[in-house]
Amino acid sequence: MRAPIGSFDDARPAPLAADLLPPPVAEAVRAWRGPVPAEHLIWVDSDPAVADTADFVATYGEDLLDASANCVVVAGKRGGASRLAACVVLSRTRVDVNGAVRRLLDVRKASFAPRETATGETGMEYGGITPIGLPSEWPLLVDAAVVDLPHVLLGSGRRRGKLIVPGKALRQLPAAVVVEGLGR
């Protein structure tokens, strides 16, 4: 199979690569339902040694520069209570944590979750966190620019490998909210 974007030697429908995904991501792929079929979620092999954006694009294709998104875990606090959420923005932008995220989560203070919290709560590797397979009770804030992409490159839950999905598929995820201007 050929990936719809980038130049990868190994690309396959994510349901056929479930053994290469961490348990929460594999479970989400197996349970996938909705207008975008699970077979349209593509797993591609990638070398974690070239994870830096410039090296990654040079290795796997210039077209990935504008088709890559990051998923970050944020923590918000209000009245001593803490809540976690995830945000997905284009790789060339930053999450508006102190503006949009803080308001949308209705918290007094928001910041990036510590590494141990992000990996411990998601069951995914740091640097590979993906919105597919996150805890369903978490708010998932997705920048509208990501949803508008025909295909978007995301983490796979591990440092090795990525997922390429139609941007509109992110609307199907539990607790997904599409937000204009989430990435700046």
Mean pLDDT: 94
CATH superfamily: YbaK/aminoacyl-tRNA synthetase-associated domain
Order of helices and strands: EHEHEEHEHEHEEE
CATH architecture: Alpha-Beta Complex
Description:
The protein has 184 residues and is of the alpha+beta class. It has one domain: YbaK protein. It has helices spanning 23-30, 53-60, 97-105, 115-122, 144-147, and strands at 11-13, 42-44, 69-78, 81-90, 109-112, 140-143, 152-155, 162-165, 176-179. The strands form 2 sheets. Strands 5-3-4-6-9 form a 5-stranded mixed beta sheet. Strands 1-2-8-7 form a 4-stranded antiparallel beta sheet, with no helix packed on it. The longest helix is centred in the middle third of the chain and has 9 residues, at 97-105. The chain starts with 10 loop residues before the first strand and ends in a 5-residue tail after the last strand. The mean pLDDT is 94. This is YbaK/EbsC family protein. It comes from Streptomyces boetiae.
Core attributes:
YbaK/aa-tRNA-synth-assoc-dom; YbaK/EbsC family protein; five-stranded mixed beta sheet; 184 residues; alpha+beta; four-stranded antiparallel beta sheet; 9 strands; YbaK protein; YbaK/aa-tRNA-synt-asso_dom_sf; single chain
Entry summary:
By secondary structure, the chain is of the alpha+beta class.
